[in-house]
Write a structure and sequence with these properties.
heterotrimer, A mainly alpha, B alpha/beta, C mainly alpha, B: alpha/beta, Rossmann fold, four-stranded antiparallel sheet, 39% helix, disordered C terminus, C: mainly alpha, MetI-like fold, 2 domains, 11 helices, flat, MetI-like_sf (chain C), PhnE/PtxC (chain C), transmembrane helix (chain C), MetI-like (chain C), membrane (chain C)
Chain lengths: 271, 285, 279
């Protein structure tokens, strides 16, 4: 903290040195310019006539959504069941694939640095690509349906679970691992006795957390044809049946809240 | 039975942890390895079972050259050398029984160990050892529910269930209170005598070394500077091992009032020589 | 099971172990619950797997496309749709930045309002419901609504992402504030500081570092999301990606995906630096 002497001979205190302060101002200035530039690019690409109309459009939308078409709910049980299956089976498949990948990616359990970078690359690619993109791709390959959704969710989950799990593996206590190796155990036994018990709670927590996220993601996969309630949503929107859309929204809302509650409870019980 | 010759260890950073270690251990002998922190005691012990790779030199257990083993043979050799750790190194989330049985991992296939289907004779032996260390009632407890002394007993049971010829013991008492430390050391000594095991105990408490070892090796800056009987340890020798320190001041005081020392303070809490004095006046082994 | 039974069981297990018979204690102690859960899980799996309809002919037909797609990664085509890709990526980046800035700026008041220890109950309830709505719906769903309201184009995307950012940041910020060290706040209050001064001197220093870290993380998420909301017309690279996939132009898709992965990697690298810098 700089304290300088003012011309009047009084000590003056300021939070930062003037150099640091100027650098701070400069950073803010650059940031603000960048933001304004981006904003300008966006506003150039926007039809402001429509935006001015947005309030009326929004009001119109709500008036069409209300009252919800409750009879439609009966036709949503099967799609909702599909959505749950996509999320659950996809998470299970993702766990099965992420588990070995995480062990290959953790610095302390990987068999070889080259394999480690491969596993890290796999994790990053899976994390970078949204499950909807995976679904789009898989629909063109496997055809529309629940299977594409399950695999899309699984592919996206590898990165998420893999990353958090390999970080947990890198943070374990090394001494039990050393002790198990010293008994003459083979590599896999060292993993299953020294490493696995230490990461198991974290692993379970991560998986349940991802399941909860996947429920949310799987509600929209139908928009690209990968099954679940998103198919109905897409159909309702395309036919401008907004009173059905609101029923679907409510259904999604309740399901997601319920899954979040379950996941929080389970994670609480584990930790 | 165990012979080290010309063992050197240099870390990639360039630090020389061990230079030219010559050491030979007969069957059934308990050797205490003493020395200041950073003298290379832990490195020496870990070089023997190759948790740390020695840079050069030869380590032989009976007729096996340990430094050249790899893979399956190294695992086979490790089965004959059990290790006991400073911070117990138990797997916290496994039960006591699982921790003890993990000593048999070198003898059991992966799936058997994964499903916890150990052969009956392993289980019987593990249980017998738990009884021997006084913990048979705790077999289903999780390791992190035990006290420090109890955990170290589990650590000892895990080492012995390996039916080793040699025990490598790294600071067994460093995290324990003085009373428990002595109990643990006595237990180790008894078990070694029962099974005619050789042991290297890496220990910083000279009083305990003196009381429980047959032989003391002093290590300083990676070199052996003393090798002899425990009663040959004199103030001059301690100075060569640990550096200059007024080893005798306390001892004079102790000689003045030997009977008080036993009740007032515990040997492990005193300076090495004063502890020796206290022990020589009190109980001996 | 009562205590006596437990003691009995422990005794039996000891006796068994002494004769060499020992099994791991089951994870769920009560056998009835254990079996019920096992059977329940099996039945669910069977029903769920049975309800998947797979057109195997279509899948077999698609396998050659899958190979094409994998092959495309070895020779991605950045050139033939260069202009579309550049425009899309630039738009995605600008949307990411703008929406993160707006979202974080709005998330701070919402987060303060959603922290029970500093906000009065009515404000707390309002802020919490904003957070819940924003977190429950996937970005795409929100994007659909905003596209209807604001028309096609990046503005709808920016508003969508900003809205999602509010829910994400405000929730974590509120949790941080609820966990903060209350003694520091009291110390500042004891000097006679006003509400604003308390926020600035006691609360801000405690949550600032994490707030910056989370903003960087959210920047990363917003970029990834901006790559998909284009599917419903909310701007960004998503539209180009969608088109290339539905036309089976996998080499262009591969190029776009590689760019996305690279940007995400850069983002992560950058944010780890920023985090080190601010701590």
């Amino acid at each position: 903290m700089p304290v300088s002497i003012s011309p009047q001979g009084q000590p003056r205190w300021r939070l930062r040195t003037s150099r640091a302060q100027w650098l701070g101002y400069l950073a803010w200035l650059i940031g603000a310019c960048l933001f304004l530039l981006c904003w300008k690019m966006i506003s150039d690409n926007t039809m402001w006539v429509f935006v001015a109309d947005a309030g009326r459009q929004g009001g119109d939308l709500i008036s069409r959504m209300l009252p919800p078409d409750w009879h439609y709910a009966h036709r949503l049980w099967k799609p909702m069941w599909d959505t749950l299956n996509i999320a659950t089976l996809g998470t299970l498949l993702g766990i099965a694939m992420a588990f070995p990948v995480a062990f290959l990616a953790a610095r302390n359990t990987t068999p070889h640095p080259l394999i480690r970078s491969l596993a890290l690359g796999l994790i990053v690619s899976s994390r970078s690509i949204n499950s909807l993109i995976w679904a789009m791709l898989l629909v063109t390959i496997l055809g529309p349906g629940v299977l594409a959704g399950i695999i899309a969710i699984a592919l996206r989950s590898i990165g998420f679970i893999g990353k958090l799990l390999y970080e947990a593996i890198e943070e374990i206590h090394p001494t039990p691992v050393e002790a198990i190796s010293a008994t003459g155990a083979r590599r896999l036994q060292v993993m299953s006795y020294g490493v696995l018990p230490q990461v198991l709670p974290a692993f379970a927590g991560i998986s349940v957390y991802r399941w909860d996220i996947n429920i949310r993601e799987s509600t929209v996969l139908g928009l690209v044809g990968a099954g679940g309630i998103g198919l109905q949503l897409n159909a309702a929107i395309n036919s401008l049946a907004w009173s059905q859309v609101s029923v679907i929204f409510l259904m999604i809302f309740v399901t997601v809240l319920a899954s979040e509650w379950i996941s929080a409870r389970v994670r609480h019980a584990i930790i | 039975m165990l012979t080290l010759s010309g063992v050197c260890k240099r870390y990639p950073t360039g630090d020389r942890a061990l230079s030219d270690i010559e050491l030979s251990l007969p069957r059934g002998q308990i050797t205490a390895l003493i020395g200041p922190s950073g003298a290379g005691k832990s490195t020496l012990i870990r070089c023997i079972n190759r948790l740390v790779e020695p840079t050069s030199g030869s380590i032989r257990l009976d007729d096996t050259e340990l430094t050249r083993l790899s893979g399956r043979e190294l695992r086979r050799a490790r089965r004959a050398m059990a290790m006991i750790f400073q911070e117990y190194a138990l797997v916290d989330r496994l039960s006591v029984m699982e921790n003890v049985l993990s000593g048999r991992l070198g003898h059991v296939g992966f799936w058997r160990s994964f499903l916890r289907r150990y052969p009956a004779k392993d289980v019987t032996e593990a249980f017998r050892l738990l009884e021997r260390v006084g913990l048979s009632h705790a077999l289903d407890k999780r390791a992190d529910a035990l006290s420090g002394g109890q955990r170290q007993r589990v650590g000892i049971a895990r080492a012995l269930v390996q039916s080793p010829q040699l025990l490598l013991i790294d600071e067994p008492t460093a995290s324990l209170d003085p009373k428990t430390s002595r109990q643990i050391m006595r237990l180790i000594r008894e078990l070694c005598a029962e099974r005619r095991l050789a042991a290297i105990i890496n220990i910083h408490d000279v009083a305990l070394a003196r009381q429980f070892a047959d032989r003391v090796v002093g290590l300083r800056a990676g070199r052996i500077v003393f090798d002899g009987k425990p009663d040959e340890l004199s103030a001059e020798i301690l100075t060569t091992i640990y550096g200059e320190e007024d080893w005798d001041t306390q001892a004079d005081h102790e000689r003045d009032a030997p009977s008080k020392s036993k009740t007032q303070s515990h040997p492990a809490l005193m300076s090495p020589i004063s502890a020796l004095a206290a022990l020589s006046t009190g109980s001996t082994r | 099971m009562n205590r006596e039974q437990l003691a009995d069981q422990a005794f039996t297990r000891e006796a068994l172990a002494s004769t060499g018979r020992w099994r791991r204690l089951p994870f769920i102690a009560d056998p009835k619950v254990r079996w019920a859960m096992g059977i329940g899980a099996a039945v669910y799996l069977a029903l769920a797997l049975a309800s998947i309809e797979v057109n195997w002919e279509r899948v077999a037909e698609g396998m050659s496309r899958a190979l094409n797609f994998l092959g495309a990664f070895t020779q991605p085509d950045f050139l033939s749709r260069r202009d579309d890709i550049i425009d899309g990526i630039l738009e995605s980046l600008t949307m990411t930045l703008t929406s993160t800035v707006i979202g974080v700026a709005l998330a701070i008041p919402v987060g303060l309002g959603a922290a029970r220890n500093i906000a009065p109950l009515p404000i707390y309830l309002v802020c919490r419901s904003i957070i819940t709505v924003s977190r429950t719906f996937q970005e795409i769903i929100i994007a659909i609504l905003f596209v209807v309201m604001f028309g096609f184009g990046p503005l709808a995307g920016v508003i969508t992402l900003a809205f999602a950012t509010i829910g994400f940041m405000a929730k974590l910020l509120a949790e941080d504030i609820e966990d903060l060290d209350w003694r520091q706040v009291e110390a500042i209050r004891a000097t006679g500081a006003s509400w604003w001064q308390t926020m600035n001197h006691a609360v801000q220093p405690q949550v600032m570092a994490r707030l910056i870290g989370l903003s960087m993380y959210r920047l990363d998420i917003n970029f990834r999301e901006s790559a998909v909301i284009g599917i419903v017309g909310a701007g960004g690279i998503g539209a180009t990606l969608n088109t290339s996939m539905s036309r089976y132009e996998y080499d262009t898709s591969a190029a776009i995906l590689l760019i996305i992965i690279a940007v995400v990697l850069l983002c992560e690298y950058g944010s780890s630096h920023v985090r080190r810098w601010t701590q």
